[in-house]
Every structure is written in structure tokens, then in C-alpha cells.
Design goal:
about 260 residues; alpha/beta; 7-stranded mixed β-sheet; two-stranded parallel sheet; 11 strands; LRRNT domain-containing protein; repeat; LRRNT; membrane
Length: about 260
């Protein structure tokens, strides 16, 4: 006759089965492939090229080494978009419509990242805070860059692909004469965009202070003139009033008779 298992004994009997189910679920999650993408059997390569994606897909396997998101319609890279992808070695975001990259967008990627391709997008400005401590080889060419101090800081901190440096061209700049020129050439000619920006800021501050001071002086002059005019009108009004008649008292009458 089989012995009926009690509660603790039944739980001990089911624990291995529960462990197996959790392990199978974790393995399945780690090998899930984003919808519309192609993944290799080991999930090391995830290819989402030309899938008409408008945002970074979810459920990218954690073991991914190569991630291709090129030739889509992605416009924004939010913070934490590549969370948990610490093993990523190459990230291709080229040929999209990216015009906004939030601070910390790539910060959570691991030190294994060797290549980051942001070429052929719509990026005008990009702060170095988007990368954190990462220093992969980075491609930034064929973007409508606004050449200013932040781009100069990127040149000083990132490991930019040397073969594409001359293709990073100023679409606009802090001074119009720099537009249409390769940014690296301007830097080599001795132009310091951070100094130019500081001078521009100082001039703008001086102009603002001058305008404010002029407005204050104008108000004071207006206030004084208004008070003078008001005082003059009041004085003229007082002059126009008839003089009060002297009231004859009884004592004055008696003295006059005498």
C-alpha cells in the first residue's frame, strides 16, 4: 500500500520539477528573438536590417554579440535602450532617422563593445554623457552636425573611426563661415569652438545686461518726469483756486464803530 506523502514531503518531491521549469523558462527567455528579426541559433547575432522598425526592439537576447538595427525608421535612442546587453561587441544603427539620443543611451553597454555605427542619420547634436565610460570605435559621418563645443568634446573623448573623420561635415555652426567644412579640418586649423561659445555667451550676457540697464534708466526717467508733471498740475490747480474771504467777527465791528 503506497504511503501518502505529507505536505513537506510533497514539497520536497516537487522542488526538482519546479527548478527544471524555471531553468527551461530562463533558457527560453535568453534565446527569444525580437519580432521581425533573425537570430542565430546561439543568439550571438541578431539581425533586424530593413524591418521598418520605429524604435529599439524589446526582448533582445542577453548573449547577443552582434546587433544590426540598420536601415530602419528609428528616430530616438532612449536611456536604457540596451540594458542587459553587456556582451555586445558591435552595434549598427546606421541609415536610420535618428535625431535624438538621450543621455545614458549607451551607458549600460559593456566594455566589450568594439564598434558603434551612427552614420547616415539626422543627428545634429550629441553630448558625451550618452556614452558614459565607453570608448568604442564610433562612426558619426553623414549627419547634419551643428558644429559647436559639444561636438569638439566628442572628438576629444571618443575613439572615432579615422577613415571617416573627413566625412563629418558642419551642416551649421556657431559662425556661418564654418558651414560646409569638415569639422576635423577646422580643429586642425586651430579653431576652438568651446572658446567661441564662451565668447558668444559673454557677449550675449553683456547685451542682455545693457538692455536691462537701459530699461531701468528709461523707467526711472519716465517716473521722475511723470511725478514732475503731476506736481506741476497740482500746483497750477492750487493757484487757480479763489482766495478765501476774511470773515468779519463781532469784535472787529465794535472796534470799527469806536
Amino acid at each position: 500500500m503506497p504511503v501518502k506523502k505529507t505536505g513537506p514531503a510533497r514539497l520536497a518531491y516537487l522542488m526538482p520539477l519546479l527548478h527544471f521549469l524555471v531553468l527551461a523558462l530562463c533558457l527560453r527567455c535568453s534565446h527569444m528573438c525580437p519580432e521581425g528579426c533573425n537570430c542565430s541559433a546561439d543568439s550571438w547575432v541578431v539581425r533586424c536590417t530593413q524591418r521598418e522598425l520605429k524604435e529599439i526592439p524589446h526582448n533582445i537576447p542577453r548573449d547577443t554579440h552582434l546587433l544590426y538595427l540598420d536601415s530602419n525608421h528609428i528616430t530616438n535612442i532612449p536611456e536604457g535602450a540596451f540594458r542587459d546587453l553587456s556582451k555586445l561587441r558591435e552595434l549598427d544603427l546606421s541609415n536610420n532617422m535618428i535625431d535624438s539620443i538621450e543621455p545614458g543611451a549607451f551607458r549600460e553597454l559593456g566594455d566589450d563593445l568594439r564598434l558603434l555605427d551612427l552614420s547616415n542619420n539626422q543627428i545634429q547634436q550629441l553630448g558625451r554623457e550618452a556614452f558614459g565610460r565607453l570608448r568604442p570605435k564610433t562612426r558619426l559621418y553623414n549627419n547634419p552636425w551643428h558644429c559647436e563645443c559639444s561636438l569638439q568634446e566628442l572628438f576629444e573623448t571618443l575613439n572615432l573611426d579615422p577613415e571617416t573623420l573627413n566625412e563629418i561635415v558642419c551642416h551649421s555652426a556657431v559662425q556661418d563661415e564654418f558651414s560646409g567644412q569638415p569639422f576635423i579640418r577646422l580643429l586642425h586649423s586651430g579653431i576652438n569652438f568651446c572658446s567661441l561659445q564662451q565668447k558668444t555667451t559673454d557677449v550675449a550676457m553683456l547685451v542682455t545686461m545693457f538692455c536691462w540697464f537701459t530699461m531701468v534708466i528709461a523707467y526711472v526717467v519716465y517716473y521722475v518726469r511723470q511725478n514732475q508733471a503731476e506736481a506741476r498740475r497740482h500746483l497750477e490747480y492750487l493757484k487757480s483756486l479763489p482766495l478765501p474771504k476774511k470773515i468779519t467777527t463781532e469784535g472787529d465791528t465794535v472796534s470799527t464803530v469806536l
